[in-house]
Amino acid sequence: MLSGLAVCAAITALVAGITGAWSPCGFSMVETIGSALGDVRRTVTVAASITFALGTLIGGAVTFGGLAVLGSLAAHGFTGLREGLGAALALAAAVADWRGVKIAPQIRRQVPERWRWTLPLPLACALYGVLLGLGFTTFVLAFAVWALAGISFAAGDPLLGVLIGVAFGAGRALPVLWMAPGLRRGHGAQRLDEMAAEPRLWLGLRRLDALGLGLCALTLAFGGVSASAATIARASDPSVAGDAGARALPGAHPALGGSTIAWDTLGAITIADRGSLQPRLTLAASGVNALAVSDSWVVYRDQDAAGGEHLIAVSLASPSTRRYLAGSRLAGQVGRPSLDGASAVFTVDTPRRSAIELVDLTSGHRRTLRAAGHGTAFFYPSLLGGGLLYERVTRCAQQLRIGAASRAGRASVAAGAADATHAQSAGRSHLRGERVLLSLPSTVSRDPGYQAGYTHAYNSASGCANRATGGGGARQLGSTALGGSRAYVTVSGSTPGDVRVLALAR
Fold first, then answer.
1. In the chain, at which end, N or C, are there fewer CB atoms within 10 A of the end residue's CB?
2. What are the residues facing 80 on neighbouring strands?
């Protein structure tokens, strides 16, 4: 389902493309295709129309999709700032288009005329279409074009960028396709003359652009955490297989992986077919409080009578084959597991160290993917196809991060303090190659570092760029799941029942 931003941006882009028909290039395209350069064969006109339309779609997708990709690669810690700037740009462009302000800066460049004399007409029209679809290689007829470029970058969603580009390209092609085929028969020429003689139509289209940009600005400014995020209200603990999306599953602690689902009911774990929910296997297990499954393994975390927790993997092909992955005398130190095939990932937290561990269940090999010392904690990792989604929490911020699991932190947990230090260094170095999909203030309360009424020269608390002193943030990140194109995370509020799952573009 398309988001509100996607709908209003696509409609605005379509109108902005149509507005471009009043440019010198737009008029010349009608004459070039409609006259077919003297070739009376209708097939030539049809072929030129088709290639021109395809060219505009490709050009638009390249421009706006490319800007969205650049936005997704930008510093995601400033997502709110980018969206705020995008909203401000959209609002300013809306005001300018509504008032009919002269376009500035203006690109005073036309398509190369020699192409239509030296190339086959369909090929020349395809290249002309690409240039017009790119948006910024010829005359710009509305501020909306500049604003849509900023919106694509601010949203940072390549799919949204491509949608905007395709809509813009379609808008550039539609007036040409409406007039060019009938140019020889007279009614096409009449439409062209009427359009050229009525500049109020151009101003009217710019005002439609302004209305669309206003809606885009509101969506960017007040549309929630991310313009590319979908929300599943009153839901938590997501599980996803590929791009199947979030799904309500039976029993307690449901999990989804490949063609398999699993849940815990009355001291037993049921593994079933995802489509039919037909049970395949039942495993006896008590005290289960977390579960992960794939087509070949199931991993569960149980709690004993003393409060200790244990992470255990069981082969679905041979249930007698089990691996003990981790254990702790204190609840909460071994995190919820996630599975991708035969690779299990989970967190281990102690007062001195927090780490994300990966275990190859087939070989038993174990390595550390991320590690940090006191003051930083990792939670809820999810693994899919070499990608790692997890939460990194400090006293300042909660971050939902995504990066590559491979080549990260090859130090063994059992290798001693020297290897642990190496793992922490490796984890820090890989932060530079990651993206932050979502950042919230931490829930930790911070005092000013001094007592009111007393002198405070040097004893103020260390600052956080994203928050002031006082109570912590009201929202808290929870469990995650990773799909092929989206990342899912639970976000809970301060009131009972205020819990939801966010789906964000990867």
1. N
2. none
pLDDT at 86: 80
Q: Which of 152, 183, 170, 176 is closest to 42 using CA atoms?
A: 183
Beta bridge partners of 232: 501
- What DSSP assignment string belongs to 294-362? -SSEEEEEEE-TTS-EEEEEEESS-TT-EEEEEEESSTTSBPPPEEETTEEEEEEE-SS-EEEEEEETT
Reply yes or no on whether the pLDDT at 9 is more than 60.
yes
The pTM for the full model equals: 0.55
Query: Residue 192: which H helix or E strand, with range?
Result: helix 187-196
Which element (helix H / strand E) includes 232? strand 230-233
| Weakest mean pLDDT among 142-146, 234-238, 349-353 | 234-238
pLDDT at 40 over 70: no
With contact defined as beta carbons under 8 Å apart, do 399 and 354 qualify? no
Give DSSP secondary structure letters for 266-283: TTEEEEEETTT--EEEEE
Under 8 Å between Cβ of 333 and 316? no
C-alpha 310/C-alpha 312 separation (Å) is: 6
What three-state secondary structure class fits 363? coil
- Pair type for strands 279-284 and 268-273: antiparallel
- The residue ranges of every structural domain in the chain are 4-227, 250-448
- Angle (CA) 92-94-96 rounded to 5° is 70
Closest CA to 312 of 279, 284, 349: 284
